[in-house]
Amino acid sequence: MSQENVDRVRSILAAWTLGDFSSNAWADPDIEFVVPDGLNPISAKGLPGMTRGYRSFLSAWESLHVEVDEIREVDDERVLVLTRLSGRGKTSGLDLDQVQTEQAILLQLRAGKVTRLVIYNFRANALADLGLER
């Protein structure tokens, strides 16, 4: 099952690397969406909560893309993706390529759907939470 989960995560990431965050077909209707760190921590349940959380974040950026550094299978249900962001702030003009944007995304899957999505703004926090090394 875990290789199927890794493959499913790769298919989700394919759109995100192109800056396409429009689909939520991969998400379980009762998905738990969490951003535990950073300036605006979020904890939401269900597709509407995840959509609001994503929109809030995405609305601040132009041409936001996820760049994948590594995909790690954590266990039979969880996949960790080490990422970087690229894009430019709509108001600030901040170019994300000029600042540290090492993030991590933890996806928990069951029956081909993501049941929990955790976006860590700081990669080290994800690794610490999961007891993993760099």
Report on the architecture of this protein:
The protein has helices at residues 2-17, 46-58, 123-130; strands spanning 27-35, 42-45, 61-73, 78-89, 102-110, 113-120. Helix content is 28%, strand content 41%. The chain has one domain (2-130): Nuclear Transport Factor 2, Chain: A (Roll). It is an alpha+beta fold. The longest helix has 16 residues, at 2-17. Strands 2-1-6-5-4-3 form a six-stranded mixed beta sheet. The chain contains three helices and six strands; from the N terminus they run H-E-E-H-E-E-E-E-H.
Instruction: Report the biggest beta sheet as strand number plus sense, adding barrel if it closes.
Output: 6 strands, mixed
Rounded mean pLDDT is 87
What proportion of the residues is helical, as a percent range? 25-40%
Looking at the overall shape, the CATH architecture is Roll
Radius of gyration, whole Å: 14 Å
DSSP helix count? 3
Quick one: CATH class? Alpha Beta
Report the sheet-strand fraction: 35-45%
Please, how many domains?
Answer: 1
Strands of the widest sheet, in order across it, are 2-1-6-5-4-3
Amino-to-carboxy terminus distance: 25 Å
**Oligomer class:** single chain
Structural class: alpha+beta
Number of strands: 6
The best one-word shape is: globular
- How do the SSEs run, as a string of H and E? HEEHEEEEH
